[in-house]
């Protein structure tokens, strides 16, 4: 599976699958990628408001 943050290929067992409230699924190769993605998302959201 491809990491939704950095785009690296990672094994399902190595990464983390996140299911959002909207039903979307996001896969991250590591906890730091998950954190970065969340930070980026928050930042983008704040920028839009
Ligand atoms: Zn990653």
From TrEMBL:
InterPro entries: L24e/L24_sf (IPR038630), Ribosomal_eL24-rel_N (IPR000988), TRASH_dom (IPR011017). Keywords: Metal-binding, Ribonucleoprotein, Ribosomal protein, Zinc, Zinc-finger. The keyword Zinc applies. It holds the Pfam family Ribosomal_L24e. GO terms for cellular component: ribosome. Residues 3-41 form the TRASH domain. This is 50S ribosomal protein L24e. The lineage of its organism: Archaea, Candidatus Nanohalarchaeota, Candidatus Nanohalarchaeota incertae sedis, Candidatus Nanohalococcus.
